[in-house]
Amino acid sequence: MPTEKVQTDNPSRERVLGRIRAGLRTAVVEPTALDRGRVIFEPVSDPLERFQRECVANLMECALTVDCAASARELAQVLQSLPAGEIFVQDDPSLRRLIEMAASAAVSGRPIRWSSQGAPAEASQATLTLAEVLIAQTGSVLVTAACGGRGASVVAPCHIIYAHVAQLVPNLATALGRISQQRIFDHNSFACVISGSSRTADIEKILVQGAHGPRRLVVILQSGS
After folding, report:
1. CA–CA separation, 118 and 200 (whole Å)
2. What is the CATH number of the domain that holds 57?
3. Which of 38, 108, 126, 147 allows an S-S link to 152, with CB 3.0 to 4.6 Å?
4. What was the pLDDT predicted at 123?
5. Is residue 6 part of a domain?
């Protein structure tokens, strides 16, 4: 003989279903239309001044230099402040020249791994790369795989970026337009916008730097040749 199913009381189930039924009877309020004329970011009147100001807000160091020799001295000072260990450097003629000019106690005896030799090691103390473009509005740096792969901007505790004032643009839209026009995306597997040192305040709103990448980001920004 077929057995008869026994219904059992399930108050929790009934409460959940009751809330669902009540919700279905509630009229949905139409969202307020967005004000497309609303200004989110303050307009950029002076890209260099704005970039420097945003760097401070992003816990990022920005050293303005007048020429390559001054940039080399700034690089030497940054490297001297780091523990002994390997430096990963994007293999580019301008960076080879910068390293050669910065030859001092900061560089001599310190192993250098060029990006043409492989990815940065986990023990690397710093990476030195170029930027594709600098975004004044948010104090951001746009890099691509050309800097030595994805690890170049993530692995080492200190990321040093060598850039020129001519690379400054007012906003992200202009930055994307410029690199698209230069067809930079055609030969790079990724692009990344970096806005300051890696940090998080997820746990009890306590700021911790170096959470997902470098805890120190330094931009050596050169104004002259």
Report:
1. 30
2. 3.40.50.10420
3. 147
4. 84
5. no
Please indicate, yes or no, whether the overall pTM of this predicted structure exceeds 0.85: no
Alpha-carbon gap, residue 130 to 155, rounded angstroms: 16
The token duo for 50 is 């704005």
- Token pair listed for 141: 């740096």
Residue ranges making up the domain that contains 62: 47-222
- % residues pLDDT > 70 (the chain): 85
How far, in whole angstroms, is CA 123 from its chain's centroid? 20
> Considering Cα of 121, then 127, then 130, then 136, what sign does the dihedral take?
positive
Which residues sit opposite 135 in a β-bridge? Answer: 140, 169
Rounded CA gap, 90 and 148, in Å? 6
Give burial (CB, 10 Å; 0-12/13-18/19+) of 67: exposed
Given this model, what pLDDT does residue 30 score?
76
Residue 36 lies in a domain: no
* Sheet strands side by side (includes 61-65): 61-65, 216-222, 158-164, 126-130, 87-89, 112-114
Tens of pLDDT, residue by residue over 34-50, are 666 677 788 889 999 99
Annotate 67-106 with DSSP letters as a single string.
SHHHHHHHHHHHHHTSPSS-EEE---HHHHHHHHHT-STT
The per-residue pLDDT for 78 is 93
Q: What is the pLDDT of residue 172?
A: 93
Q: How many domains does the chain have?
A: 1
Q: Which two tokens stand for residue 152?
A: 């170049």
| Contact (CB, 8 A) for 136 and 169 | yes
